[in-house]
Design brief:
By secondary structure, the protein is an all-alpha fold. 53% of the residues lie in helices and 0% in strands. The protein has a single domain, classed as Non-ribosomal Peptide Synthetase Peptidyl Carrier Protein, Chain A (Orthogonal Bundle), CATH 1.10.1200.10. α1 runs antiparallel to α3.
């Protein structure tokens, strides 16, 4: 039985996404909310976002086309792209 203290697969995945984004944007993971915009709220540039994309591919073992970057503006967008990405 799941309790509110038991992490779900989605929570764990979201935490992993936030950890990766935080590392590449050089911010504290606690500062990243699911709806925070990477560029506007955290000052990400295009190179940092490409680094995030590559790290996500390695972490989740998926292939993400760079054309997906415009969708990856926040954690929710990243989750949607990951859900649609083909596995290696």
């Amino acid at each position: 039985m799941l309790t509110s203290a038991t992490p779900t697969l989605t929570d764990t995945r979201t935490e992993r996404i936030i950890r990766i984004v935080a590392e590449h944007l050089e911010v504290d993971p606690a500062e990243i909310g699911e709806g925070d915009l990477f560029v506007e709220d955290h000052g990400a540039d295009s190179m940092a976002l490409i680094d995030v994309l590559a790290a996500l591919e390695r972490e989740f073992r998926v292939a993400i086309d760079q054309e997906e970057l415009p969708k990856m503006v926040d954690v929710r967008g990243v989750r949607a792209v990951l859900d649609a990405a083909p596995p290696w």
